[in-house]
RNA sequence: AACCGGGGCCUG
């Protein structure tokens, strides 16, 4: 079963879903990891409906889904922009008694954000026990997608304590600052960038240049541009 | 021992 599951994963990730399904359906004794793998590769290949269908079959087979199962299903909801299924899986999670961790909660935040319900995303986010940089970034991304730049800037001042910002977070916030013309928060981020290991990151640097340009600070944009070494 | 979460530009 372990080897067959690895095969399903390999064929699925390589884009041959038919071969993955062929092995999957002929395999006796499938366990929860086997089902998760098939669901995940279906979702990652853009076959969300297949993933939803597999989940129903999984339930019929009395295999109990776990956190990984739902993370994959939620990403399928994101691809399909299917809020109805997303809410359905959310209630499945609650009913199943699974204790959410940061990974699952972040998948929920992302799903609600991408499926058009930043309000629900925020409710999940606020209820999180262990909020980390990734969840925080996902929450801001939800607001950014819906043009709620003000909410992003409010969140910037409520960053989780004791965490280091990463390059993904810097770019997200700087883009929001650019869209909002929020020079104050932009300069704050610039200071944090200079203190971080990303001070010479080309992607972060691009976001800084863009932010200063959108804020009308062309000289600052130019000096940020000139600060980045090995510009290509 | 096999499966799982966030961003800009480009490929679009």
Write the SSE topology:
Layout: H1 2-13, H2 17-26, H3 32-44, H4 48-60, H5 67-80, H6 83-96, H7 102-114, H8 118-127, H9 133-145, H10 149-156, H11 167-180, H12 183-194, H13 202-214, H14 218-227
The protein binds one RNA strand of 12 nucleotides through residues 1-9, 31-41, 66-72, 74-75, 102-110, 133-141, 144, 166-175, 178, 203-204, 206-207, 210.
What does this structure look like?
This protein is mostly helical and 232 residues long. The protein contains 14 helices and no strands. The mean pLDDT is 92. α9 (133-145) packs antiparallel against α10 (149-156). The N and C termini lie far apart (48 Å). It is elongated, with a radius of gyration of 21 Å. The structure holds one RNA strand of 12 nucleotides.
What labels would you give this structure?
232 residues, mainly alpha
Taking the alpha carbons of the first and last residues, their distance comes to: 48 Å
Mean pLDDT: 92
Q: Structural class given helices, strands, pairing?
A: mainly alpha
> Shape, please?
elongated
Run of helices and strands: HHHHHHHHHHHHHH
Number of strands: 0
Major beta sheet, specifics? none
Strand content: under 5%
Instruction: Count helical runs.
Output: 14
Rounded to an integer, what's the Rg over CA atoms?
A: 21 Å
**Unreliable stretches covering 5 or more consecutive residues:** none
Helical content, roughly? Answer: over 70%
How would you summarize this macromolecular structure in one to three sentences?
With 232 residues, the protein is an all-alpha fold. It is built from 14 helices and no strands. α13 (202-214) packs antiparallel against α14 (218-227).
């Amino acid at each position: 079963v372990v080897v067959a599951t690895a095969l399903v994963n390999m064929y699925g990730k390589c884009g041959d879903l038919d071969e993955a399904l062929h092995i999957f359906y002929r395999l006796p004794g499938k366990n929860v990891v086997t089902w998760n793998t098939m669901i995940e590769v279906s979702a990652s290949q853009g076959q969300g409906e297949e993933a939803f269908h597999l989940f129903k079959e999984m339930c019929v087979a009395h295999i109990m889904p776990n956190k990984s199962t739902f993370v994959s299903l939620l990403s399928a909801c994101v691809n399909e922009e299917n809020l109805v299924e997303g809410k359905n899986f959310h209630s499945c999670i609650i009913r199943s008694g699974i204790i959410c961790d940061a990974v699952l909660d972040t998948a929920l935040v992302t799903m609600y954000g991408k499926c058009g319900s930043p309000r629900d995303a925020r409710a999940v986010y606020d209820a999180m026990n262990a909020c980390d940089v990734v969840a925080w970034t996902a929450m801001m991304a939800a607001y950014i997608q819906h043009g709620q730049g003000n909410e992003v800037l409010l969140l910037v001042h409520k960053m989780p304590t004791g965490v280091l910002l990463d390059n993904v977070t810097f770019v997200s916030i700087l883009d929001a600052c650019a869209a909002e013309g929020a020079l104050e928060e932009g300069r704050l981020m610039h200071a944090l960038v200079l203190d971080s290991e990303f001070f010479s990151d080309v992607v972060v640097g691009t976001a800084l240049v863009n932010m200063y340009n959108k804020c009308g600070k062309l000289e600052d944009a130019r000096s940020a541009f000139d600060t980045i070494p090995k510009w290509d």
